């Protein structure tokens, strides 16, 4: 028993001594976590250089855009051909993808050799060989009946400007066919196919094997956004945000980047980690000074690296009694597959002895232990270096997404990863240790990169089909210049009809006189009370106006809510609530006993017989209070004051919010004679010549006309530009058939138009994987504020997805792009037809005044104009184009229509002195 223990101790000591001896000899290859994090940081810096247009030309890590913009979403289907070119053999595959009930992929393939004389010969011979093999495959499989979509996996660095183009940058993996570098390999293949004849294919996509791996795994796991190859060569790709890729136009969405990380260190950035053994490997390679990272990692070099180490140790008397064999001295004799066999858990030592013996060596037990440890250090360093670069990629993805913790999947392929008994486990463990804030699943690509090429082709075909269908859906909302000119001309007709006595009652634009005869001239002064009712909030204000050299307006206000049950209750309840709010405000201000002149901003269509008389024509903006339409709202307010019997009001003027906006801006800019509201509702007022207003007596001077243009189209004159989505929004509204123009332009309805489009696209399987959630079915869930947020230029698609997730919509990156496009189309149309209507108004004013050119200011208010990032620009551009003889300045109203009501009151009272 003692003898057994002694033998065991001796063997353990022997093993320990041998391991220590190898560790000392290869100390530079054993990397700590701090060193690996340093390498990861260096790789991050190289990624940045490769993505930047300023530094990409000199960057070692090329970060090549692949023009693959989407990973599979599971809806792909069809039959595809694929070529997998990248080694001493290549594959031709037929891939059938189905999503009928359950997603399946069927593959059939034939492997063809690529002889060394073809790999090293003329480029035309190489591509002729590929074309002939493709033809042979199609004839054998009887698939020449119709044109076949084809994807190519081409496992060499290519610069792509589109998905079906790739200019070869350099050969690797012992390929060196002449006349190919700097040439589009897709075009070379097409030319070879044309020379051969009898092959009817449509080459849709060229991808790297790494991209193919990511796409293959992405079909099975839609969280897969990284691909890694560790085989004959090594490389990685990942999905990068478009806004970071300087070499490709556009900021929307993501694109797969082929890092070509094998060249990491070619610029000297890894010199302190490169050993003398690595330098010897490099010097003896067919591409000295290139692909240095790959030469430290990949299967093409791993066995040779071990051979050089063993030969050096032998020469130093550390192995084989200093006796090296001819095989050990011969380049390439120690294959990487030997490393895999030597590191097997149980058979490792016996495999080592057998392999070394086959190489003409006579190894001792000590030698076998040492050789096994050399293999472990070399392969472990390979896994460590891969893990460090992968950690850099994962950290970048996490930071791009602004996540504390990233959950993602890495698709992996390659003979080293597949066949080495310890490699995958080591890579996983080290990568997870380096990035604890990334929860990573590693998924082995079961079907190779050929399936990936087919999946890229399938995704490309799906996206082309989806884009076409989405474009067709949105086409009716994208108005031509002629359609906008028609809107302008029809608006002009309705403006004229609304002003004439004989057509006023049938005009869709009511052109309501406001009895406001002029804009402020700067002499107004005094203290006024103002009320502002136009939505779910109601404001009560005290406004102090000072004239003279130091003109100023000071305001004090409180905001009160109008509950839905009040908005849609009785008129008496509504006005009693308003008076209660006024009472609270007067108490708050200590003004219960004051009787100030009051202006009432009432932002609903009213027919006025005087400045202080306003008969409600119809409710808008969700109000439905009964017994109000057809009644004078000033009288209703006075009756409510009497019922409360606490205070009295001196109601001087009732005005629309549009008129209030014009008056507010005119106080600062005397050239302001138009008011525009682009918010919850949409409306315009302007100063019209009295002689044109047939509904009011008198021909001298001007009067402000409240157009109430939200009703434009109620007589059917704009049916040609209304879409099925507009009709669905109208049918679901409280006032079916009314305010048709407003329902195409205002904040209250734009979100609902978007929701209807999203439902349509989802129903057709073009969005949200075809799943219509209960939230998406809910009317009003897509508020217009989301359009403003989603269309912000500063908003990353990740944040768009977050907004959609708030709405219960589980979106992909592609979904986010589509939603943003829908929002942009709807809001742009709204701004453009607003602009067309405004062009009609300003041109009418110009003609009224007999001017060749008009210089005028428009006062604007409303959340849509204020908050939407592009609405105001589109509006201005449209007015400029459709009214070229009018110079129109838009001024934002900063103080709201409450100030306007006070100014109208001041103007109406003629208070030039106090």
Automatic annotation (TrEMBL):
PROSITE patterns: HEXOKINASE_1, HEXOKINASE_2. Catalyzes the phosphorylation of hexose, such as D-glucose and D-fructose, to hexose 6-phosphate (D-glucose 6-phosphate and D-fructose 6-phosphate, respectively). Mediates the initial step of glycolysis by catalyzing phosphorylation of D-glucose to D-glucose 6-phosphate. Plays a key role in maintaining the integrity of the outer mitochondrial membrane by preventing the release of apoptogenic molecules from the intermembrane space and subsequent apoptosis. The lineage of its organism: Eukaryota, Metazoa, Chordata, Craniata, Vertebrata. InterPro entries: ATPase_NBD (IPR043129), Hexokinase (IPR001312), Hexokinase_BS (IPR019807), Hexokinase_C (IPR022673), Hexokinase_N (IPR022672). GO terms for cellular component: cytosol; mitochondrial outer membrane; mitochondrion. Residues 22-219, 470-667 form the Hexokinase N-terminal domain. It comes from Lepisosteus oculatus (Spotted gar). This is Hexokinase-2. Keywords: Acetylation, Allosteric enzyme, ATP-binding, Cytoplasm, Glycolysis, Kinase, Membrane, Mitochondrion, Mitochondrion outer membrane, Nucleotide-binding, Repeat, Transferase. It is a peripheral membrane protein. Residues 226-459, 673-907 form the Hexokinase C-terminal domain.
């Amino acid at each position: 028993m003692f003898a057994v223990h002694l033998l065991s101790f001796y063997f353990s000591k022997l093993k320990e001594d041998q391991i220590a001896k190898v560790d000392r000899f290869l100390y530079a290859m054993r990397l700590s976590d701090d060193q690996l994090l340093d390498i990861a940081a260096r790789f991050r810096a190289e990624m940045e250089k490769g993505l930047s247009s300023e530094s990409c030309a000199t960057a070692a890590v090329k970060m090549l855009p692949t023009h693959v913009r989407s990973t599979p979403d599971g809806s792909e289907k069809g039959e595809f051909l694929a070529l997998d070119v990248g080694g001493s053999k290549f594959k031709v595959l037929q891939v059938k993808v189905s999503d009928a009930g359950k997603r399946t992929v069927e593959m059939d393939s034939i492997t063809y050799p690529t002889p060394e004389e073809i790999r090293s010969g003329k480029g035309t011979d190489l591509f002729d060989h590929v074309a002939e093999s493709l033809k042979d495959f199609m004839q054998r499989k009887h698939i020449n009946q119709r044109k076949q979509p084809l994807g190519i996996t081409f496992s060499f660095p290519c610069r792509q400007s589109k998905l079906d183009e790739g200019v070869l940058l350099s050969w690797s993996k012992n390929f060196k066919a002449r006349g190919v570098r700097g040439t589009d390999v897709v075009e070379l293949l097409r030319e070879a196919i044309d020379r051969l004849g009898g092959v009817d294919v449509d080459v849709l996509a060229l991808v790297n094997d790494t991209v193919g791996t990511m796409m293959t795994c992405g079909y099975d796991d839609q969280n897969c956004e990284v691909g890694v190859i560790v085989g004959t060569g090594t490389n990685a790709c990942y999905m990068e945000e478009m806004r970071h890729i300087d070499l490709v136009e556009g900021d929307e969405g993501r694109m797969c980047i082929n890092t070509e990380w094998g060249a990491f260190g070619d610029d000297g950035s890894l010199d302190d980690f490169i050993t003398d053994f690595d330098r010897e490997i490099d010097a003896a390679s067919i591409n000295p000074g290139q692909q240095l990272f790959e030469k430290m990692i990949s299967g093409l070099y791993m066995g040779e690296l071990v051979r050089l180490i063993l030969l050096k140790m032998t020469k130093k008397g550390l192995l084989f009694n200093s006796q090296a064999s001819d095989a050990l001295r011969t380049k390439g004799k120690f294959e990487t597959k030997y490393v895999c066999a030597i590191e097997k858990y149980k058979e490792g030592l016996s495999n080592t002895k057998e392999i070394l013996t086959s190489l003409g060596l006579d190894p001792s037990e000590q030698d076998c232990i040492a050789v096994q440890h050399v293999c472990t250090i070399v392969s472990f360093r390979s896994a460590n270096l891969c893990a460090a670069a992968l950690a850099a990629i994962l950290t970048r993805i996490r930071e791009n997404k602004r996540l504390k913790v990233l959950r993602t999947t890495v698709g992996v392929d390659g003979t080293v990863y597949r066949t080495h008994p310890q490699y995958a486990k080591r890579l996983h463990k080290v990568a997870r240790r380096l990035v604890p804030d990334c929860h990573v699943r590693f998924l082995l690509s079961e079907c190779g990169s050929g399936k990936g090429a087919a999946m890229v082709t399938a995704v490309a075909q799906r996206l082309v089909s989806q884009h076409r269908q989405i474009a067709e859906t949105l086409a009716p909302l994208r108005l031509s210049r002629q359609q906008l000119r028609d809107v302008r001309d029809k608006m002009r007709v309705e403006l004229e009809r609304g002003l004439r006595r004989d057509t006023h009652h049938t005009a869709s634009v009511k052109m309501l006189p406001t009895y406001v005869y002029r804009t402020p001239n700067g002499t107004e002064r005094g203290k006024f009370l103002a009320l502002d009712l136009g939505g779910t909030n109601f404001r009560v204000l005290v406004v102090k106006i000072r004239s003279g050299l130091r003109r100023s307006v000071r305001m004090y206000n409180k905001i009160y809510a109008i509950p839905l049950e009040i908005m849609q209750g009785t008129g008496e309840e509504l006005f009693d609530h308003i008076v209660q709010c006024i009472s609270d405000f007067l108490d708050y201000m200590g003004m219960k006993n004051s009787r100030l002149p009051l202006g009432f901003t009432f932002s609903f269509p009213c027919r006025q017989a005087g400045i202080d008389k306003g008969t409600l024509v119809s409710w808008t903006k969700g109000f439905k209070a009964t017994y109000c339409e057809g009644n004078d709202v000033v009288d209703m307010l006075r009756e409510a004051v009497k019922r409360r019997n606490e205070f009295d009001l001196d109601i001087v003027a009732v005005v629309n919010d549009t008129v209030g906006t014009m008056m507010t801006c005119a106080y600062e800019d005397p050239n302001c004679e138009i008011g525009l509201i682009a918010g919850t509702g949409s409306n315009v007022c302007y100063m019209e010549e009295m002689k044109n207003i047939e509904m009011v007596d008198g021909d001298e001077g001007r009067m402000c006309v409240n157009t109430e243009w939200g009703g434009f189209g109620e007589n059917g004159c704009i049916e040609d530009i209304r879409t099925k989505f507009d009709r669905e929004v109208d049918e679901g509204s409280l006032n079916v058939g009314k305010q048709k123009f407003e329902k195409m332009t205002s904040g209250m309805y734009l979100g609902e138009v978007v929701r209807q489009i999203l439902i349509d696209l989802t129903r057709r399987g073009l969005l949200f994987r075809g799943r219509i959630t209960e939230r998406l079915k809910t009317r009003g869930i897509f508020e217009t504020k989301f359009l403003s947020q989603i269309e912000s230029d500063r908003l990353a698609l990740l944040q768009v997805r977050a907004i959609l997730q708030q709405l219960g919509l589980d979106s992909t990156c592609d979904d986010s792009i589509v939603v943003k496009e829908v929002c942009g189309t709807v809001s742009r149309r709204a701004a453009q037809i607003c602009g067309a209507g405004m062009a009609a108004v300003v041109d009418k004013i110009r003609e009224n005044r007999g001017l060749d050119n008009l210089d005028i200011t428009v006062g604007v208010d409303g959340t849509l104009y204020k908050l939407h990032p592009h609405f105001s620009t589109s509006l201005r551009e449209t007015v400029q184009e459709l009214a070229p003889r009018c110079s129109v300045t838009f001024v934002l109203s900063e103080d709201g229509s409450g100030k306007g009501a006070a100014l109208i009151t001041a103007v109406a009272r003629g208070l030039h002195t106090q």
